Amino acid sequence: MISKSDILQNLQQSQLSNSSRLSSIWTTRYLSKNSSVKISAYVLEEAASSMGRRRTVERLHADLLEDVCRRAAVRTKDLYAHYENINLNKTSDLARSAQQVYPLLLEFYCNHTPIAIARESSLPVFAIPEINILAKAIEPYLTMFNAQNIRQIDWQIRSFLTTEFNLSGKLLLEYLSPAEQVLLSPYISFLEEYVAIPWHRVCALADNYAPTAPEFKIVERVLPQISEISIAVYTKGCELFGGYYNRRGQLDNPGVRHSSLRDMHMFQVYLWTCLLQGNLDAIEQELLVLCTLVYRRIDIPWEMAIQATKLLSNEIMQTLTASEQLIVSPYINGMIQAFKTA
Predict the structure, then answer these.
(1) H-type helices in 92-130, by residue range?
(2) 3-class SS of residue 91
(3) Residue 4: predicted pLDDT
(4) Torsion angle of the four alpha carbons 43, 44, 45, 48, in this order, in degrees rounded to the nearest 10
């Protein structure tokens, strides 16, 4: 079994800039996962070849994209339809927005050879190449949904678009072979998270620090643990709020679990954004605003948000040394206090 540290070592070099080093960590979030499929190395490598990727993109033609995005938009509206004070007329462009982004994503997939970075159970593990270039390619179509503009846009559209990408991505994968699904799934996950999580910002902020600066070293060391920390918080949250139920089901519902973990990833990246910015602006002016608008409108108890920040804070602090805790605690405490007083 390959470890995340082995993968990072393959991706990172000591001479890389701070932003490039964090971009390598970003890249490891979107690796091909082979454990759940029965395919040969030859079949997977053939699907990853230039011709194989071209065939994959041809399968996902414009008419199919239009149909899938339309169906996902309908399902997205259905998930939110019973909540009060939501104007569903404003979601009519959801499908069109997704349709504009997918061709760019697929063009990048077709034209950039996946990085084979390791082998697991004799199968190659692939990563998205040049993730920053992919981010720049789709950014013009998603700028209006960026969290920095949350006060200028309708919160519903950004929230709905994240769900739209999640649902449409799952539908698109159903039209592909198992090998193609393994290879394209990381790109689908990247697209969904790009709308919600400011990975590109935390990477860019890292270049404001020397490679030996304690703030940067903390972020570089803890950021690869984002999934493990989120799972620990989610597990404890299920124990505290086992009776919670929404349109998708209880907290153990796969869809609820997915969105809950994505939110915990988002909270962590916002925390590290604040640490590298040297202030709490990103949490107080973006994350808190978004959560206040979304959670309260879709009947997520605010106490859950408060407890989530506390659980998350405890998990993060446990990963830090005493000296690191002194640096991070003002931001941890600031996040908790912001949610407690909202």
Answers:
(1) 94-111
(2) helix
(3) 63
(4) 120
